[in-house]
Amino acid sequence: MEKIYQTKVNNSKVVSAKPETIKFLLDYSKSLNITEAKGIKFENILN
Amino acid sequence: MIQELEDSQLVKYYMNGNERAIEVLINRHNARLTGFIYSKVGDRELTEDIFQDTFMKVIRTLKRGAYNEEGKFLPWVMRIAHNLIIDHFRKSNRMPMCDGTDSFSIFSLMGDEKLNAEKQLIKEQIDTDLARMIKELPEDQQEVLEMRLYKDMSFKEISENTGVSINTALGRMRYALINLRKLVEANSIVLTN
Question: Which GO terms describe its molecular function (chain B) (predicted)?
């Protein structure tokens, strides 16, 4: 019998954030420090 | 294993200082969130920027302890992303982007309001000439002209300040201009930039 079925090819690309972006976010998270003084929260970026 | 924990537990871990928890959360929702943003903005670079801004906001909120476990983590993140997308479109509507092409440069339409060096020199020359000519005028005309041109005062204010009527002030201004024109013609001065 003639082969009439074709294999399905999924052409849609899965988009996801680049590793550099993820690394930036993780570094940002590690460097972000929140301190609280007299009820006010201060954000510091520690190098 | 930390990867098997639920979002809510990872959030708690992260809020208690476990940095690995946020890594798992970001990686877990990376494709879904990126796909969501990309479906709205249709631009790869912009998607990356909004993704980054979304998680920066998430990180700040969690670190500040301002997150409340009322809803689920992912819908909350999606809502932040959604708001940032709206902000982006609002901003780009106010300030439309215009990219140049090979045959058209946006800089051909944009001008610098500052005068170039040559025009600046000419302007300074004109200002100096004008100031010198004003000094040649009779004192009462000089006074009215300076108040009107340099101090931007109305004729009512000029009349109050000089103690003359408005009509006199107007008359002095008129004669000041006539005399200035005569001086310009007599000295062949060009007062245009």
Answer: DNA binding; sigma factor activity
